């Protein structure tokens, strides 16, 4: 008559080792998450951002052949509202457009902004004679009749900040502004705008 073996099968030592390692990793992840969460709640960090604080149309010439010459001054302000972390801005690249025609690119080397401070970058953007297509010429004609003209400024900058135990955090800040000017004296009309982060 066959006999039943009721002795439990012994667990292999490698299985126990794997279970212990997984438990240690899980506990470490939970502790790290708690540290990051508590650090975030204590510091309440804000994402550094870019703002256009000033714009002026210094020069605007247009002839009936369809050639346009401009010069625009733009002041870009990099702001870091964090009281406990300095920020780094890098890969800054903004493009100036008129009617989807790229006129210039605004760039800057990587730079730091200290805690709770800001840094201003001033750009004087001249252009060579820009040949305009018919639709752009019609837009310039309409703008001259209205006494105002608009340009688009679009681009992005990478922001990075380090907060104690929370670690290093990186974001891309995207900027999309319409710069409007009076054609008679180049004064800007509600040109202030700020970046959005993701």
UniProtKB/TrEMBL annotation:
<keyword id="KW-0472">Membrane</keyword>
<keyword id="KW-0812">Transmembrane</keyword>
<protein>
    <recommendedName>
        <fullName>Late embryogenesis abundant protein LEA-2 subgroup domain-containing protein</fullName>
    </recommendedName>
</protein>
<dbReference type="GO" id="GO:0098542">
    <property type="term" value="P:defense response to other organism"/>
</dbReference>
<feature type="transmembrane region" description="Helical">
    <location>
        <begin position="12"/>
        <end position="43"/>
    </location>
</feature>
<dbReference type="GO" id="GO:0005886">
    <property type="term" value="C:plasma membrane"/>
</dbReference>
<keyword id="KW-1133">Transmembrane helix</keyword>
<dbReference type="InterPro" id="IPR044839">
    <property type="entry name" value="NDR1-like"/>
</dbReference>
């Amino acid at each position: 008559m066959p006999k039943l073996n009721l002795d439990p099968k012994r667990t292999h030592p490698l299985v126990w080792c794997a279970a212990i390692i997984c438990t240690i990793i899980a506990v470490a992840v939970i502790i790290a998450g708690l540290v990051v969460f508590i650090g975030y709640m204590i510091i309440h960090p804000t994402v550094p951002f870019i703002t256009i604080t000033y714009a002026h149309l210094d020069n605007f010439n247009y002839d009936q052949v369809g050639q346009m010459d401009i010069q625009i001054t733009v002041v870009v302000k990099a702001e870091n509202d964090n009281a406990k972390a300095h920020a780094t801005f890098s890969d800054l690249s903004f493009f100036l457009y008129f009617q989807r025609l790229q006129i210039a690119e605004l760039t800057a080397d990587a730079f730091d902004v200290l805690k709770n401070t800001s840094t201003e970058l001033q750009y004087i953007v001249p252009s060579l004679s820009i040949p305009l297509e018919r639709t752009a010429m019609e837009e310039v004609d309409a703008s001259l009749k209205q006494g105002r003209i608009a340009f688009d400024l679009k681009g992005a900058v990478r922001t990075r900040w380090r907060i104690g135990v929370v670690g290093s955090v990186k974001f891309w800040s995207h900027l999309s502004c319409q710069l409007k000017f009076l054609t008679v004296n180049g004064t800007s009309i509600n040109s202030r705008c700020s970046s959005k982060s993701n």
